[in-house]
Amino acid sequence: MNDQHTSQSKPALMVPLPQLPKAFWAFHDQYYRAYRRYAHVHLGDPHAAGELVHQVLMHLAMNWAHLMEEANPAASAWALLKESVAGELRIQGRKPAVPETAMLQLVVRAVLESSRQEFEVIESALGLYPAIARLPERQFDVMVLRYVLGSSTDTVARIMGVTEATVRSHCHFARRKIARELGIAFATDCDDEE
């Protein structure tokens, strides 16, 4: 063995990670599961979703001080997650897996619960998938978080960094748009709460 070989076999210096504030860990505990489930719905792969969410949370951890300076940190973190999911889908050259997942059936059921013509619409459920996919981005997110992932209105509001009234409004208009596209009656007396 020569000195050159010996120096190459020495382990690299370990750089300690900075101590993360308790607020980050509280954020992590509050949002990790929802972020991972949201990413899984779009990517269609639980492992890829976990990796992506880990990367997002590590980015947030390393930039925690900057995030805390934002006017709405939860909304900024949500935007980063959505950008990361969209970027991963672009890299893979594909669209979100939501229409292909069985979980979307929960949205179908939830949308149909307020309709008298439930069974008629079930027969044409294929029309529902494109209708949901055509929703504006925030309405789509609310429908996924609310009905696919089963999150309460207040949880959706916290995740997206918006008010509960905004979540209820997005839900109302999404359901109304879907009903209009499918040609079914929209139950205006339906409470968008659980």
Automatic annotation (TrEMBL):
The alphabetical list of record keywords is: DNA-binding, Sigma factor, Transcription, Transcription regulation
Q: Where are the transmembrane segments?
A: none
One annotated GO molecular function is:
DNA binding
Q: Does the keyword Signal apply?
A: no
Species of the source: Streptomyces violaceusniger
**Might you name a Gene Ontology BP term for this protein?**
DNA-templated transcription initiation
Q: Residue ranges of the RNA polymerase sigma factor 70 region 4 type domain?
A: 131-178
This protein is called: RNA polymerase sigma factor 70 region 4 type 2 domain-containing protein
The UniProt entry's sequence similarity note says: Belongs to the sigma-70 factor family. ECF subfamily.
Q: Does the keyword Membrane apply?
A: no
Q: Which Gene3D superfamilies match?
A: 1.10.1740.10, Winged helix-like DNA-binding domain superfamily/Winged helix DNA-binding domain
